[in-house]
């Protein structure tokens, strides 16, 4: 395994919660308040002259159903044959009669029809009586391609009905660890992969043939493509930060600094990169400035160090002015917040925020700035917790057996992706704060971990 520092950072903080995960146990979500989910009726996708098999239309319907079901805004109603018959009526005034739908408590109605491989979908707001038509969506008959069309449609529906940006067309970057078949190399290797928000469309991104972990998407910028990301790789012995894009199979070194480099995080403004390094002898928090063209500016600054302690897992506030990070400077690993810049060459004082939970790791600051998700040991099991930045309160999000770690917020600050942990299995899960269920989105060989939200296609 790659050198001491890997144990100093990863094992100090991850072995703290290396308890065995039970066999496919249910992950439950605790919420202090239940959000109101709007009742929505989604009709079967019809099409006598669709040019596609009925079974294919069912697959499209299932994708659309799942997108809306896990959106965090709607509650899909059970299918009703009487309603399905009414929805096939040729008169729109009959189909979209507000009294009919209001009487049974439905707030929104969606009706889809395919003709000559083109999908039309009507979105009806029962309360306002408004009717929106999404017209002529092309279908190819290739589910891998048409699935993207449905994901885009789902996000457009959410914007129309609720005025919010959906995540159905988002991608997730993550690391997959497998046994190394080469007996002359390390026992494990890991590469960066990507998948759809629901776990479909998996594709290997890096081909380093080594150990690649903790991918982080670089926010879009006019000077470069929006598919660039950074990650940590061990191919030269020590862990170093590399940058690459979804089009490249390998990355290039990013920071010229001796020692080990781990756990990178980049500000939304793309002007600062935070990471952990032992260049000063201990695992300390460093910040590298970046100019407006995306190039490194000067040398990295040591932002925080403390005697006989280890720092880890920095995450920026949305405005880039603060960093939340993990430190064991006061004993057990806890989460602190510190200014992200040096003022008059003086470091800011870190402020402890997690006073209720213990053995905290991997914080993630929500894009709206109101929440920080993290993992904490709770009754012997690592659970996902949320710190409310406005109230200053900690709330346990997940319950049930099996350790959970590495939460990461979607752009909507509503959905989280995280991974389970177990010596033999690690999978990705999706959850949103409005629904008490976590959904496993990956399966198969390899340990999937360190998920982060990627580009929107």
Strands across the major sheet, in which order? 3-2-4-5-6
The DSSP helix count reads 6
The name CATH uses for the topology of the largest domain is Neuraminidase
Q: In CATH, what is the class of the largest domain?
A: Mainly Beta
- Binned strand content: 35-45%
The total tally of domains equals 2
Radius of gyration: 24 Å
What is the strand tally? Answer: 31
Distance N to C terminus: 36 Å
* CATH homology-level superfamily of the largest domain: TolB, C-terminal domain
Main β-sheet, in a few words? 5 strands, mixed
Low-confidence stretches: 1-25
- Could you report the average pLDDT, rounded to the nearest whole number? 90
Polypeptide structure, described:
This protein has 457 residues and is mostly beta strands. The protein has 2 domains: 3-33 and 168-456, TolB, C-terminal domain (Neuraminidase, 6 Propeller); 38-71 and 74-162, Rossmann fold (3-Layer(aba) Sandwich), CATH 3.40.50. Helices cover 14% and strands 41% of the residues. The protein has 6 helices and 31 strands. It has helices at 3-14, 54-69, 81-87, 92-95, 98-103, 143-162, and strands at 28-29, 38-42, 74-76, 108-115, 118-125, 131-138, 170-179, 188-196, 203-204, 212-217, 228-236, 238-245, 252-253, 261-266, 272-277, 284-290, 296-304, 311-316, 322-327, 334-339, 351-352, 358-365, 371-378, 381-388, 393-396, 398-399, 403-409, 415-421, 428-432, 439-440, 447-456. The strands form 8 sheets. The chain has a 5-stranded mixed β-sheet with strand order 3-2-4-5-6, with helices on one face. It has a 4-stranded antiparallel β-sheet with strand order 9-8-7-31, with no helix packed on it. The chain has a 4-stranded antiparallel β-sheet with strand order 10-11-12-13. A hairpin with a 5-residue loop joins strand 18 and strand 19. Helix 2 (54-69) packs across helix 6 (143-162). The protein starts with a helix and ends with a strand. Mean pLDDT is 90; it is low at 1-25.
